[in-house]
Design a protein that fits this description.
- It contains 8 helices and 7 strands; from the N terminus they run E-H-E-H-E-H-E-H-E-H-E-H-H-H-E.
- Strands 3-2-1-4-5-6-7 form a 7-stranded parallel beta sheet, with helices on both faces.
- The model has no long low-confidence stretch (mean pLDDT about 95).
- By secondary structure, it is α/β, with parallel strands linked by helices.
- The chain has one domain: NAD(P)-binding Rossmann-like Domain (Rossmann fold, 3-Layer(aba) Sandwich).
- Helix 1 packs parallel to helix 2.
- Bound molecules: NADP nicotinamide-adenine-dinucleotide phosphate.
- NADP nicotinamide-adenine-dinucleotide phosphate binds next to helix 1.
- Belongs to the short-chain dehydrogenases/reductases (SDR) family.
- InterPro entries: KR_dom, NAD(P)-bd_dom_sf, SDR_fam.
- It holds the Pfam family adh_short_C2.
């Protein structure tokens, strides 16, 4: 076996949530390219068709297990995925949301202005559903010879994130959950890690990308000075899911172009004035 063989997932059975677009779609394609057999989830089956078509180029037609994770009862989709694939070795949980305005656009507002309903919505999808997915995944992963659970958290979960407090709190909770489960499940052979990207070019960040003053200001705080592509996140998710990471568990793997490095301003990267309203 060469070191590159350790990145292969031939025959492994993987569930990817949030797989209809963005990071989840790129993760599904990456796992399929590495040889995994897949189950895909998002709120509706039709939304999963483009990803299913992409995945199908590299192997079996994926199973579709839709469910709206605003309702934790829908976490039964994990059991449906295990039924369809004959078990589960890998779960990459990507489904997640920012607080939303009624028109579906991102709601960036300080906590003191965030409606309780928006907080509850984010906690339901990002945190309560994550716990439910993990709970349902346990029995299936415990039967695997090489189990890996990856939670798509965020750098917002490990740094201060004003105007995104609800999102950041749920992402920090995912890091905490990954650490606790990793320790609790280690002797069962289940590895659990949180993957914490910085700013990634997806639908979730489309409203930010569309405002140059905001986008430029945010990138001024990223030492590498650019957005990440979903495929760059997917490559790290593949690593965490694969035997290449066989001794790696309980970690928050930050992938942010240097955003979270505490440079204290010493890097000298010019920072324009904030276009955001004062807190
Ligand atoms: N983009 C970034 O800059 C960034 C940075 C750090 C971390 N992340 C995290 O990475 C993950 C993926 O983000 P993304 O940028 O790829 O987001 P995205 O493009 O907005 O995609 C979100 C995915 O989650 C699914 N989803 C949303 N609400 C759901 C619900 N109630 N039930 C089931 N599925 C639901 C969506 O499916 P449908 O809408 O088709 O149902 C979609 O597949 C999230 O957890 C996010 O917090 C993103």
């Amino acid at each position: 076996m060469t070191v590159l063989d350790r990145f292969r997932l031939d025959g492994r059975r993987a569930l990817v949530t949030g797989a209809s677009r963005g990071i989840g779609q790129a993760v599904a394609v990456a796992l399929a390219q590495a040889g995994a057999r897949l189950a895909l989830s998002a709120r509706t089956a039709p939304a999963l068709k483009p990803t299913a078509d992409l995945v199908g180029r590299y192997g079996d037609t994926p199973a579709l297990v839709p469910g709206d994770l605003a309702d934790t009862a829908q976490a039964v989709l994990v059991d449906q995925a295990a039924d369809a694939l004959g078990g589960l070795d890998i779960v990459v949980h990507c489904a997640g949301i920012l607080p939303l305005n009624p028109d579906g656009s991102a709601l960036l507002a300080p906590l003191q202005q965030l409606p309780q309903q928006a907080w509850d919505q984010v906690v339901a999808v990002n945190l309560n559903a994550t716990a439910a997915i993990c709970r349902h995944a346990h029995a299936h992963l415990a039967r695997s010879e090489a189990a890996s659970l990856v939670l798509l958290s965020s750098v917002a979960g490990v740094v201060g994130a004003p105007l995104m407090e609800a999102y950041a709190a749920t992402k920090a909770a995912q890091v905490s959950l990954a650490r606790s489960l990793a320790v609790g499940w280690a002797r069962t052979g289940i590895r659990v890690n949180a993957l914490c990207p910085g700013w990634v070019r997806t639908d979730m960040t489309a409203d930010v990308q569309a405002v140059p003053a905001l986008s430029d200001w945010l990138l001024a705080h990223v030492p590498m000075g650019r957005w990440a592509d979903p495929e760059e996140v997917a490559a790290v998710a593949l690593f965490l899911a694969s035997p290449a990471a066989a001794f790696l568990t309980g970690q928050a793997v930050v992938l942010d172009g240097g955003l979270s490095v505490p440079d204290g301003g010493l890097a000298g990267i010019p920072k324009p004035p904030s276009p955001l309203p004062a807190p």
